[in-house]
Amino acid sequence: xxxxxxxxxxxxxxxxxxxxxxxxxxxxxxxxxxxxxxxxxxxxxxxxxxxxxxxxxxxxxxxxxxxxxxxxxxxxxxxxxxxxxxxxxxxxxxxxxxxxxxxxxxxxxxxxxxxxxxxxxxxxxxxxxxxxxxxxxxxxxxxxxxxxxxxxxxxxxxxxxxxxxxxxxxxxxxxxxxxxxxxxxxxxxxxxxxxxxxxxxxxxxxxxxxxxxxxxxxxxxxxxxx
Length: 226
Hints:
With 226 residues, this protein is of the alpha+beta class. The protein has helices spanning 5-27, 81-114, 118-162, 169-214, 220-224; strands spanning 36-42, 45-49, 61-65, 71-75. It has 5 helices and 4 strands, in the order αββββαααα.
């Protein structure tokens, strides 16, 4: 047998056994009571010590074996109230974005599967449009009626004053009440008109989205149904 057979066989055996040995050492848990270093960031600087001071107990840190120099653990620090609030806000934002995206997806599916034309889609808004328009007309009618009544009361009060008579308390109270009612219905009218404008914008944006989903130019779908 050649003289180099035994050394080659020994080297081969060592190469076979080496990976198992390394893996065994890597997976071996740190010995109880083994010394370790603690490293954390403080005031923008990296700080390491063989004992963890109380003021650093709540900080994010790494634990390093003093024997091997390998990191053995990473401890997350305690969050400040501000950090917890920011984390909760971020999680809430992500949930709301996911919900909004799902709502948009379902709405788009409903638009495509429910309505065959723009006219069908417009009919969905017709009841709301009619309701708001009627409210505006009612407010206008009430304003006209209240204004005419107020003018009549003011004329009566003026005539009494011109004739040297005292304006009765009831007449003065009626004037104040009618004026307050007039202001209230004017406010109602403005609110109804704002609702109508917002509804018109909603209708147009919905129709535009519907056209985009169907790939239909503006006016083409409505013309096709005539």
